[in-house]
Design a protein that fits this description.
single chain, about 325 residues, Rossmann fold, four-stranded parallel β-sheet, ABC transporter substrate-binding protein, ABC_transpt-TYRBP-like
Length: about 325
């Protein structure tokens, strides 16, 4: 009888231990989770969409925040010193991977570490920016995607939209390498089309109204490349141009929604998604130095009819026939 009770007690104890063992196997501890440190340079539609696409791709690949990965998101609010500080903090906390969104964020991350894998997106030219040795094979701890916009197509769009236009004013931030690259491409493309360029460089959002006022009587259209400061300040740009009824052609769709009339550009959600797929490969052990920096081939033409109407601009049928009409987001 006593022996029977002892055996029963042992049996219950063994079952409990076994159940506890199984439970322990199924639960993930903090040490089991890989951490992705996210450094986004500033907040605007394109960068936000890139981040959303990145998260969607990770989830499709089985990486879910709070389940088997931990995502630590930081935003530098468009400040280079803040970006450098955040990058150092992420490196010091020994994250497993850094996801850097936009050229200044990527440069800050690369300055902070040459060891931790860095996956980038919304970087115009990773080679020119000093992040990789080549496009086809990174050669560094950096890989990811470029948002190099079809600048030549955007210059052609200006000519189709405004056949009588002679001079294009380009509004950009002088401290952003990505913008300098796009300005050079625009100058090259414009020259082939017989368009003159007036460069309008700024260093802060406060300079935008005066910068535009200084050229509105000299240009037929304002072009805004995918510049982070300008992108996050498109309502300011639009208000400055609206008074003089100057059309604004932008570098991407989110900018057109907030302050432009048209663009032909890439899908930033898809760009981020492609980056997320690459990040999953890195998490699984792939060496970023052996990976390329990818770009998107497909572009889409969009028109903001509301903004066009506001300045009395008639969009040619040749554009409307193939464009998507987008809604303003002021």
């Amino acid at each position: 009888m006593k022996a029977s009770k002892v055996l029963k007690g042992l049996g219950v104890g063994m079952i409990c231990c076994y159940c506890s063992f199984l439970a322990g196997c199924s639960q993930k501890t903090d040490s089991d989770m890989k951490t992705i440190g996210v450094l986004q340079y500033t907040e605007h539609a394109a960068l936000d969409a890139s981040y959303e696409g990145f998260i969607a791709a990770l989830e499709d690949e089985g990486y879910v925040d709070g389940d088997n990965i931990h995502i630590e998101f930081k935003n530098a609010q468009g400040q280079n010193p803040t970006a450098q500080t955040i990058a150092s903090q992420l490196v010091n906390s020994n994250v497993d991977l850094v996801f850097a969104i936009a050229t200044p964020a990527a440069q800050a991350a690369y300055n902070a570490t040459k060891d931790i894998p860095i996956v980038i997106t919304a970087v115009t030219d990773p080679v020119e920016s000093g992040l990789t040795k080549a496009w086809d094979v990174s050669g560094t701890n950096v890989t990811g995607t470029s948002d190099l916009t079809p600048v030549a197509k955007q210059m052609e769009l200006i000519q189709e939209l405004l056949p009588e236009a002679k001079t294009v004013g380009i509004l950009y931030t002088t401290s952003e390498v990505n913008s300098e690259i796009q300005v050079a491409l625009a100058e090259e493309a414009a020259a082939k089309l017989g368009l003159d360029i007036i460069k309008v460089g700024i260093t802060s959002v406060n300079e935008i109204p005066n910068a535009i006022a200084s050229v509105v009587d000299k240009v037929d259209v304002i072009y805004t490349p995918t510049d982070n400061l300008v992108s996050s300040s498109m309502p300011v740009v639009w208000n400055a141009c609206l008074e003089k009824k100057i059309p604004v052609v932008t570098g991407e769709e989110g900018m057109a929604k907030k302050g432009g009339v048209a663009t032909e550009g890439i899908d930033y959600f898809q760009l981020g998604y492609e980056t997320g797929l690459m990040a999953a490969e890195v998490l699984e052990g792939k060496d970023p130095s052996t990976m390329p920096v990818k770009t998107l081939e497909n572009t889409s033409l969009v028109v903001n009819q509301e903004h066009a109407d506001a300045i009395g601009l008639t969009i040619p049928d040749s554009i409307l026939e193939r464009a998507e009409i987008v809604t303003s987001e002021e």
